[in-house]
Amino acid sequence: MKICIVAGGRIPCRFYGGTERVVYWLVKELAGMGLEVTLVAPKGSSHAQAHRVITFRKTGNEINRCPPDIQSLIPADIDLVHIHFAYKEKLSIPALKTVHGYPFHYTGRKVYARPEEFDGQTSFVSDAHRRVCGLPENPFIHNGLDPDEYLFQREKNDYLLFLGKVDWNVKGLPLAMKIAQETKTRLVIAGDFLDPHFFQNQLKPRLSPLVSYAGPVDGQKKAGLLARAKALIFPTLWPEPFGLVAIEAMISGTPVLGTRNGALPEIIEHGRTGFLAARPSETIDQLGRIEELDPEACRSHVLKRFTSRIMARNYLELYKRIIALHGSH
Questions:
Q1: Long-range residue pairs from 310-313, CB within 8 A, at least 24 positions apart, any chain
Q2: How far is it between the farthest Cα atoms of the chain?
Q3: Taking the C-alpha atoms of 16, 18, 24 and 28 in order, what is their torsion angle to the nearest 10 degrees?
Q4: DSSP state, 188?
Q5: Which of 32, 96, 117, 190 is the most exposed place for a label (fewest CB within 10 A)?
Q6: CB-count burial class (<10 Å; 0-12, 13-18, 19+) for 53
Q7: What integer is the mean pLDDT of 25-30?
Q8: Which 3-state string (H, E, C) describes 42-83?
Q9: What is the tens place of the pLDDT at every residue in 164-198?
Q10: Which string of DSSP letters, residue by residue, matches 221-280?
Q11: How many Å apart are CA 263 and CA 128, to the nearest integer?
């Protein structure tokens, strides 16, 4: 089978780049399963396992609103194209369009996702995600990660970790800082910014011996922070489409203190791999129970449900169904 994977961001990514990591792992796993994979991605992209890489120049910062001309980039011999952003045009060949967020309308905590902005070729990354977008009948496939890129550590250091887009308030950093201060628990913040002035103007004045910033971490530094933390604090305020950072923590043996928003109840096993809270006061109480959770159980949970190999196998089954359905028309 010949598959064309179309990415909206540079592959491989630098620093966090959750969607780009998922795409990178998917190409790697599909190629390892014997598929011929063409990667189409922005200039500067590469992938050792791809059969070929075709690059394009992005015309704007928002790929969902300024997509490339997909039709002109797809090789003629492709069996199916799998696009990893919200592409509104209907494709004549077998196609899957996986949406990784809420691409068109959201303001603060309110998501404006209209079913008419997607179509029958669209898939989502969780059951909660497709329901928020108003398409509960469309398929969803959970994201997966490559366990080999992470460290496992049973013994933990005495800090909470916040990892993600630091200045994106829907991810809950102000709430994480408030919980750390109220419980006098050390908090390490890691990640990059949407606003390049955020660190100097807003974050730096709030740092203290209790709250530190580790920078836009990647690779071994990120893996080490995840493995040593006594918990990942993830008080997301919006309907989280998936929450890759949660499985990154759990594969490292680190439980997650999350909310009940979006997909987190699908990903975190409450009372076994983390705790889910409806209010900050619940998270404060749950913080005192973190040592009840077994790091081995956290890792086992991801190995059974959220690896890149499992994700690739699920996508392959969906590809086969799409190609067969296309051939019957």
A1: 310/144, 311/22, 311/25, 311/26, 311/29, 311/141, 311/142, 311/143, 311/144, 312/25, 312/26, 312/29, 312/30, 312/33, 312/144, 313/33
A2: 64
A3: 110
A4: E
A5: 32
A6: middle
A7: 98
A8: ECCCCCCCCCEEEEECCCCCCCCCCCCCHHHHCCCCCCEEEE
A9: 989 888 899 999 999 999 999 999 999 988 888 88
A10: HHHHHHHH-SEEEE---S--S--HHHHHHHHTT--EEEESSTTHHHHS-BTTTEEEESSH
A11: 5
Residue 111 has pLDDT above 70, yes or no: no
pLDDT of residue 109: 47
**Phi, psi (5° rounding) for residue 198?**
-60, -45
**Whose CA is closest to 67, among 90, 88, 46, 91?**
88
Tokens standing for residue 45: 């992209």
pTM above 0.90, yes or no: yes
Mean pLDDT, to the nearest integer, of 275-303?
A: 96
What is the C-alpha to C-alpha distance for residues 314 and 293, in angstroms, rounded to an integer?
29
Q: Which of 14-18, 76-80, 89-93, 203-207 has the lowest mean pLDDT?
A: 14-18
Query: Residue 99: phi, psi to the nearest 5?
Result: -95, 130
Weakest-pLDDT range from 31-40, 53-62, 233-242: 53-62
Question: What are the residues facing 190 on neighbouring strands?
Answer: 163, 215
